[in-house]
Amino acid sequence: MATILEAKEVYKYFGGIKAVDGFSMEVENKSITGLIGPNGAGKTTFFNVAAGIYQPDRGDIFFKGEQIGGLRPDQICQKGLTRTFQIARGLGEMTVWENVMLAPKAQTGESPFGAFIFKRVKKEEKENWEKAAALLQEMGLYEQRNEYAKNLSAGQRKMLEITRAIMTDPEILLLDEPTAGATVDETKKIMAEIERLRDEKGLTFLVVEHKMEVIMNICNPIYVMHNGQNLAVGDPKDIQGNKQVREVYLGG
Predict the structure, then answer these.
(1) Which of 49, 69, 94, 248 lies 20 to 30 Å (CA to CA) from residue 78?
(2) Which residues, including other chains, have CB under 8 Å from residue 63's CB and lie 6 or more apart?
(3) Rounded to whole angstroms, how far apart are CA atoms 104 and 99?
C-alpha cells in the first residue's frame, strides 16, 4: 500500500527543549495509524508541525510525495491534510450547522471578487448545504443541527469536530484524542465511524489517543513516541508485548 504521509527526522525546539527529536514515521494510504506516548512525549507538537501550525526546525514532511514542511496550515489543508481541533469557546456559541458550514475550503464567497460571481457563489452555497446535511445525517448529528455546540455531550462535540474536518474534503485526517471525555457508548460509536469513513470514503487517519481500547482495536500500525523520539512501531500485539513500551507508557 502506498505511503500518503511521511515524516523524516523531524525536529521541533522550544527554547532548549526538543519537543520533537528526530521523529520519523510513515502513514499508509487508507490506514488507521495510531500514535501513542506519555504526556509530554511530543505527539501534539508533531501533529501541529505536520499540519503547518508549527514550522519544523529540521527534517522533512511529505504528503503524497510532496514536501509540505514549512507550508501554511491553509495550504496544507488545500492539499488534503486536515487536523481536528477542539470546539473553541466562540464556536461553542454557534449552532452545529453553523460550525459545519464554516469549514468548506476555498469558497468563492470568501474572495474579494466573490460578490461579482453571484451565480457561482449561490451554486457553491447550495452544494455545501447539501453536503453538510448529508454529513450530519451520516454522523448522527442532524437532529442536533440547530443546537448550540456548547450544549452537546463530549462525544457529540468530538463527532462535530470530525464532521467539520470532513467538510474540507481531506484525504487524511489527523485526530487528536477523538474520544476524550466521551462515554463508553459514545467511544464505541466514534470508533465505528472512523472505521466506516476509512472503508466507505477511503479516508486515511492518524490518531493520537490515550484510551488504549481505541488504539488497540482500530489502529494498525501503532507508533510509540517518547521524549520526542520514535520508541517503537508495530501492530497492536507487538506493542502490547514490547517491554520498553510497557515500562515507559503502559505501566510495566
Answers:
(1) 94
(2) 4, 5, 76, 79, 80, 81, 172
(3) 10
> pLDDT tens-digit profile of 139-165?
999 999 999 999 999 999 999 999 999
C-beta neighbour count of 134 within 10 angstroms: 11
- Quote the cell numbers at residue 181: 471525555
Predicted TM-score (pTM) of this structure: 0.90
For 198, phi then psi, to 5°, come to: -65, -45
The set of cell numbers assigned to 180 is 476524550
- Fold (topology level) of 3-251: Rossmann fold (3.40.50)
- How many CB atoms sit inside 10 A of residue 23's CB? 27
Tens-digit pLDDT profile for residues 175-208? 999 999 999 999 999 999 999 999 999 999 999 9
Q: Distance from first CA to last CA of the chain, Å, rounded?
A: 34
CA–CA dist 94, 61 (Å, integer): 35
Residue 43: closest CA among 195, 207, 159, 165: 207
Count of CB atoms within 10 A of residue 239's CB? 26
